[in-house]
Design a protein that fits this description.
2 domains; P-type Cu(+) transporter; binds adenosine-5'-diphosphate; binds magnesium ion; Rossmann fold; single chain; elongated; alpha/beta; Calcium-transporting ATPase, cytoplasmic domain N; 6-stranded antiparallel beta sheet; 13 helices; 13 strands
């Protein structure tokens, strides 16, 4: 392609809301044969909704959510924000409730939070958090988790003084049209993979719903980047699509990093292409644009 063609290509991209940072990024994109998608906020809407609360012990929802919110109000995680918002429903002064004070707050990346509230140790997070902190998960709880994950929901466990008290079932639906995007990519001979920090059950359910066969779950940020490098070592030209801080190492490692415009600044900075409208269809538009520019297909 001539420099003029490349300029035209990036210009058309910009007018579509596909911000391409330079000619090299545009060029690499037409060779992509494999895309790694983050789950939360990329394939899914990223606005989690609490669908049910399964209390395992004799405790009032109001008291339960007061302790949970007191711990989670200190976390920046989207799941924490959704839980705190939901907890307000159980308060009389709904608007700006004052939660009990939390001491020794700890945020455990990829697992959840811990705090001491009203002299009780509160743990809110996934199964791994409970296992690492010696909280027993009963057979009943395992069953609820399996049901939750089969529905593509995430079960967040709550333990008070090492006793499992309840499970908060949270749904984060797929973006509309996500399935179509994956099937169009397939027809373009581009393979899709999901990589997420969420648990295996939920990840597999979401992948099935969207039509992706290959899933990597319970992945830390460095695992996401390792997966990209592994695919490259197998001879693939890999794009990574993500929105979070935890996606940035993988966005940098990929041949083409694509950030969701609504994502965090760190992801946007790490990416070669920014999908300003946060639409997954723009992944296809970016590839089409690059193919048109470099393969001279009309
Ligand atoms: P991702 O954004 O890819 O889902 P994260 O690493 O942010 O991955 O989180 C992985 C998992 O850790 C979440 O699905 C959740 O189960 C748990 N988790 C992380 N932070 C919190 C939190 N503040 N409250 C409850 N659970 C959390
Ligand atoms: Mg994400």
């Amino acid at each position: 392609a001539t420099p003029t063609a490349v300029m035209v290509g990036t210009g058309v991209g910009a007018s579509l809301g596909v911000l391409i940072k330079g000619g090299q990024a545009l060029e690499r994109t037409h060779k992509v044969n494999c895309i790694v998608f983050d789950k939360t906020g990329t394939l899914t809407i990223g606005k989690p909704v609490i669908v049910s609360t399964r209390l395992l012990k004799d405790m009032r929802p109001r008291e339960f959510y007061e302790l949970v919110a007191a711990a989670e109000v200190n976390s920046e995680h989207p799941l924490a924000k959704a839980i705190v918002e939901y907890a307000k429903k159980f308060r009389r002064e709904e608007e700006n409730p004052v939660w009990p004070e939390a001491q020794n707050f700890e945020s455990i990346t990829g697992q959840g939070v811990r705090a001491v509230v009203q002299n009780k140790e509160v743990l809110v997070g996934n199964e791994r958090l409970m296992l690492e902190r010696n909280v027993a998960i009963s057979i009943d709880a395992e069953e609820i988790l399996a049901e939750t994950e089969a529905l593509a929901q995430t079960g967040i466990l709550v333990a008070i003084d090492k006793e499992l008290i309840g499970i908060i079932c949270i749904s984060d639906p797929l973006k509309p049209g996500a399935g179509e995007v994956i099937s169009i990519l397939k027809s373009m001979k581009v393979k899709s993979i999901v990589v997420t920090g969420d648990n295996w059950g939920t990840a597999k359910s979401i992948a099935k719903e969207v039509g992706i066969d290959t899933v990597i779950a319970e992945a830390k940020p460095e695992h996401k980047a390792e997966k990209v490098k592994e695919l490259q070592a197998e001879g693939n030209i890999v794009a990574m699509v993500g929105d979070g801080i935890n996606d940035s190492p993988a966005l940098v490692a990929a041949d083409v990093g694509m950030a969701i415009g609504a994502g965090t600044d760190i992801a946007i900075e790490a990416a070669d292409i920014v999908l300003m409208k946060s639409n997954l269809e723009d992944v296809i538009n970016a590839i089409d644009l690059s193919r048109t520019t470099f393969l001279r297909i009309r």
